[in-house]
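Per reviewer request, we include the raw input and output of the structure prediction for the construct analysed in the revised manuscript.
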Amino acid sequence: MTTQTVKLEKNSPEADFDESRTDAFAQRMMDMINGGSIAMMTSIGHRTGLFDVMANFPPVTTLQIARASGLNERYIKEWLGAMVTGGIIEYNPKAQTYFLPREHAAVLTRAASPNNIAAFAQYIAVLGSVEDKIVECFKQGGGVPYSAYGRFHEVMAEDSEQTVVSALEEAILPLVPGLVEALEAGIEVMDVGCGSGRALNKMAALFPNSRFVGYDISRETIEAAVCKARELGLTNIQFQVKDAAAIEAVEQFDLITAFDAIHDQAKPDLVLAKINQALKADGLFLMQDIYAHSHVDGNLDNPAGPFMYTISCMHCMSVSLATGGDGLGAMWGEEKAQEMLQEAGFNQVEIKKLEHDFQNNYYLVRKS
């Protein structure tokens, strides 16, 4: 039996194979798996209120945590195992106590809003619930409808509360000189894709002289918005189940808002045209949407790039495609956004950023 020696060409892939690079990449992938697991457990810590409980205590035992939270001690112990090995919570083996450092609590508790990253961790579990359906879309095309996403509306509403509602009065509305004064005097306002109406109800409560209307395609979220408006005793607001592409108003509104809504639309170009149609000649369209560029090479330094592309693929793009829409996706980017705004008839577009909100752009849009 003879043995043949295969001589590799100098530039062949085999000759250039760097085993240390593979080892480093394998470790990175293991870190990702651990990170995804920590994200799931962080979501649980947020939903159960465990972070909020632990933020108020010195080092405590599992029994003390269980008594303070009213939760099952066995599950708490296993959850703490993930939190300790993940570097979220500190453990004293001698005393068998657990401690949430103040520096960690500053981004993990409800008191930390709008900096509560634990709230965003919920998206991982919600998106995971539709993975099977998304895999089928990779094979067959099409999309996954809103109705398949379970808690997505609930998580989105909490996200909106942190990034938009809490910042409306002090940060977002003041981006436009004179807007607060106009709202105080009384103007006509429409919110497109209003969801559960948290932002619009907040504005209606702040500015009783103005009149507000909110549209969303989801009956479930509109019912929640109406319920909240009644609870607040608001008489200057109404909500309707309506596809934004079917808006019929002509030069009726002084201010139109869209908070994280345009990229989800089946026909975003038509929706933007309808917004232009409904806006008065001297009116303002205030659009909050994801901070991104339209090509992937422009997002290499985006701190939330992988997260936002994942949400786009598994929700924003898919729900649009499920209705036969364009599937624009969350990462349409500011270049595409400006192009579409101009095509819709808007001639003045200004992009603003807010210190508290790293993930969004705020577009101040006018007809002229």
